[in-house]
Amino acid sequence: MNAHKIKQDMCEMGRRLYNKGFAAANDGNITVRIGENEVLCTPTMHSKGFLKTEDICTMDMSGKQTCGTKKRSSEALLHLEIYKKRDDIKSVVHCHPPHATAFAVAREPIPQCVLPEVEVFLGDVPITRYETPGGKAFAETILPFVEKTNVIILANHGTVSYGIDVEQAYWWTEILDAYCRILMLARQLGNVSYFSEKEERELLTLKQQWGWSDPRNTDEYKNCDVCANDIFRNSWKESGVQRRAFPAPPPMPALSASKVEQAVSQSLAGIAPVLKANPSQGSGDGLAGIDQEELVRLITAQVMKQLAQ
């Protein structure tokens, strides 16, 4: 592994972050894992737009700096938690892209089923709970999400993304911020149109064929609503995340036959009291004494109620 070439790549990504406005002043940090216990890290209090290879320091997997004249980033522990959870990850990028960070401040979930590229490359994007940056508690906020996504929004802070090299780690951030900007512009125009379930499932199939993982393509989430942020929804309450600016997409559950049968069975049980209250005259058939349209309405209402639970 050519450590000098990797340092050059880190400096180049730093310039991209700075020029895109993702890392104002001395914001942001970049790491690359180059060995089992060796990680290259950008220095603290140094603009990412003007890095030189000699500015890059080295630390071990405990966070102890082992080489370099400038002090490592104070937020390096966050990066190390990702490396410990994901053996496939070799680089982590943390920065403050304005549009994505606006969602972090608003604690607004990122809408799904809007752009094909986002569905294929990102999927559901979680928002962590807030912790003061720099410490162990802050680093651990990403742990519930690391294994199911490659980009995370840090509440009231910024983003962290990671990949097989420093360029890929940067890509996810750029895709996310561009998407957040598009969402804001579309909202100003007055409407965000969502994919149908058929259109979304076609994208998920392509994603799987192209070798990109998505929890929605696994057995664990086969019955989830594919457009409703169901992968990370259980974290919303703790993180203070709530839909405020963007409406929820139309419900798109993937229902198994057994679930439908169960819902119909429970629905029929639910309207049994109505049938008993409307017996037919002399036939003993509870269906005959009720208007057919009313019966259909009752059954439909009960089925929808059961499926929504």
List keywords for this structure.
single chain; 309 residues; alpha+beta; L-fuculose-1-phosphate Aldolase; 2 domains; seven-stranded antiparallel β-sheet; 10 helices; 7 strands; 40% helix; 10% strand; elongated
How does this model look, in words?
Helix content is 40%, strand content 10%. It has 309 residues and is α+β, with helices and mostly antiparallel strands. It folds into two domains: 3-189, 3-Layer(aba) Sandwich (L-fuculose-1-phosphate Aldolase), CATH 3.40.225; 257-308, no CATH class. A seven-stranded antiparallel beta sheet has the order 4-3-2-1-5-7-6, with helices on both faces. The radius of gyration is 25 Å and the shape is elongated.
Annotate the secondary structure layout.
Blueprint lengths: L2 H17 L9 E7 L2 E4 L15 E3 L5 E3 L8 H10 L5 E5 L2 H9 L9 H6 L14 H5 L10 E4 L3 E6 L2 H24 L7 H13 L26 H4 L17 H20 L15 H17 L1
Antiparallel strand pairs: 1-2, 1-5, 2-3, 3-4, 5-7, 6-7
Q: Rg to the nearest angstrom?
A: 25 Å
Q: Indicate the CATH class of the largest domain.
A: Alpha Beta
* Major sheet size, sense and barrel closure: 7 strands, antiparallel
| Share in helix | 40-55%
Proportion of residues in extended strands: 5-15%
> Structural class, from secondary structure content?
alpha+beta
Which fold does the CATH topology of the largest domain refer to?
A: L-fuculose-1-phosphate Aldolase
Run of helices and strands? HEEEEHEHHHEEHHHHH
Write down how many β-strands occur, each being a DSSP E stretch of 2 or more residues: 7
Mean pLDDT: 89
**Count of folded domains:** 2
- Terminal residue distance: 53 Å
Overall CATH architecture of the largest domain = 3-Layer(aba) Sandwich
Number of helices: 10
